[in-house]
TrEMBL record:
Residues 1-17 have a biased composition (Low complexity). Keywords: Repeat. This is Pentatricopeptide repeat-containing protein At3g06430, chloroplastic. It holds the Pfam family PPR. The keyword Repeat applies. InterPro entries: PPR5-like, PPR_rpt, TPR-like_helical_dom_sf.
């Protein structure tokens, strides 16, 4: 482990490596590129072509004699015959003859106040949409629509429809869509697709297909490749591949060609359920196609599939194949490789990829650090985990929820439960979002520490924060109660699980 730690630490050092100091060592550290010089060059103002010509023209211009004012000749406007006949300065009424306007300042002030109010409320609507507060966004939107000077645009409806879909409110999205049509805003295929996507996000495929059929009856709202891709993704997520085949046939009948995004969605779906033969067929079609060639997302999908399954050789083989196809990797590609190597405890290869990223000037992202922290957390290597986290913060990289989930799991695996508490406190100070995964990590740490009272307290806080427990939550707690022989607690937990499942089904 000491050698592994040394190899990893070398890749985490800053870019200024001591090349001269390590010449006598047996294993020389690979010097990283001087990124500061590259940054200076990138942010330097480019030399404009016009500057040189401007300076040369100014130097060659004649020198004017001081004390004399050079007045340019007045250009006379020659009107065409019959154009503006008889118009002169005397033809226009003088300011003294004009009828004075009453209360001009008052009217202008009222107009400016109305504009300021509209701008303020419009900004409030954009803020609610950005923060995903769908109820508040609808209230502000209704307030705006009541004003006679405000006319909602297609883009505004689009943003609210997407927000409602992401917030689990497809019925409310449909209601807004109907209101939009009644108010005279003509629907488009994009707006219909946004409504369809709202149902797809909530696994309501029957309703989504009804909208698709409705679009087919409207000449100006015909479904396009984005409509079908959205519906295909919902079918793939639901593992209903028979519907995927029917949608492909429907697209062919309407002369709609699947794009690379569509094929990547299906490719990923087949891979997740282990249908490798179908996945290979889709990939071969992409290689033979002239309109939807594989791209870096295709590469990431394939190598991520094998990486998550721990099939390192297949992952590396496909990586080389895609490189031979001329597809260049991106930061996410390297992060997938780092994560796969980390899960298999192949720290040397993980460190090599990180050094390779530095060499090619690919930035280490939050995901990069999370993968490394997770690799050490899984084996309870608190020392290297902390070293990576400190380096992450030193480089100004912002931690996220997954970062603290990995830290909590790592300290729990190492038996350092007091550091679990400090990590939770630090997450609160940094205002890290507390989702289901975060609470599951803390509950799991309490279970490993055999502190069931604290585990129940965290579970109660989870529900108070309206964070929905999932199957992992119940599995962790049931196993903790089983070890202590608390069958009554297990029974209560199972009943609560059934109630939550029924509630979600009704919703």
């Amino acid at each position: 482990m000491a050698s592994l730690s040394l190899s990893f630490s070398s890749s985490l050092r800053p870019t200024s490596l001591q090349h001269e100091a390590t010449q006598g060592m047996k294993n020389k550290a690979i010097a990283e590129p001087d990124l500061s010089r590259a940054f200076r060059c990138a942010f330097a103002s480019p030399v404009r072509k016009g500057n040189a010509s401007k300076s040369s023209s100014s130097s060659s211009s004649p020198v004017r004699t001081p004390g004399f004012k050079h007045t340019p000749p007045v250009k006379k406007r020659h009107w065409k015959e019959g154009e503006f006949p008889g118009i002169s300065d005397a033809s226009f009424p003088s300011s003294s003859n004009r009828t004075p306007l009453k209360n001009v300042k008052k009217k202008m002030d009222n107009k400016n106040k109305a504009k300021a109010w509209a701008n303020t409320v419009t900004e409030a609507l954009a803020d609610r949409i950005q923060k995903k507060l769908w109820e508040d966004a609808l209230q502000v939107f209704e307030m705006l629509k009541e004003q006679p000077f405000y006319q909602p645009k297609e883009g505004t409806y689009m943003k609210i429809l997407v927000l409602l879909g992401k917030s689990g409110q497809p019925q409310r999205a449909h209601q807004l869509f109907d209101e939009m049509v009644k108010e005279g805003c003509e629907p488009t295929s994009e707006l219909y697709t946004a409504l369809l996507a709202a149902y797809c996000r909530n696994n309501l495929l029957d309703e989504a297909f009804l909208i698709l059929n409705q679009m087919k009856t409207l000449p100006r709202c015909q479904p396009d490749v984005y409509t079908y891709s959205t519906l295909i993704k919902a079918c793939v997520d639901a593992s209903q591949f028979d519907l995927v085949d029917s949608l492909y046939e429907d697209m062919a009948d309407r002369s709609i060609t699947p794009n690379t995004v569509t094929q990547n969605i299906v490719l990923s779906g087949y891979g997740k359920v282990g249908k490798f033969d179908q996945m290979e067929k889709v990939l071969l079609k992409m290689l033979e196609s002239t309109t939807c060639k594989p791209d870096v997302w295709t590469m990431n999908t394939i190598i991520s599939l094998f990486g998550n399954k721990g099939q390192i050789e297949m992952m590396e083989r496909w990586y080389e194949k895609f490189r031979n196809f001329g597809i260049e990797p991106e930061t996410r590609t390297f992060n997938i490789l780092i994560g796969a190597y980390g899960k298999k405890r192949m720290y040397d290869k993980m460190s090599s990829v990180m050094e390779y990223m530095r060499k090619l000037s690919f930035p280490w992202t939050t995901s990069t650090y999370n993968n490394v922290i997770e690799a050490f957390a899984d084996v309870g290597d608190a020392k290297n985990m902390e070293y990576t986290f400190d380096q992450m913060r030193a480089e100004g990289m912002k931690a996220d929820t997954k970062t603290f989930c990995c830290l909590i799991n790592g300290y729990a695996n190492a038996g350092l439960f007091h550091k679990v508490v400090s990590s939770v406190q630090l997450a609160g100070k940094l205002e890290i979002p507390e989702n289901t995964s975060f609470y599951n990590s803390v509950i799991s740490a309490c279970a490993k520490a055999e502190d069931l009272i604290e585990m129940e307290r965290v579970y109660k806080r989870m529900k108070d924060k309206h964070c929905q427990p999932d199957s992992s939550t119940f599995s962790i707690m049931v196993e903790a109660y089983r070890k202590e022989g608390m069958t009554d607690k297990i029974f209560d937990l199972e009943q609560e699980k059934m109630v939550i499942a029924n509630y979600l089904k009704d919703e």
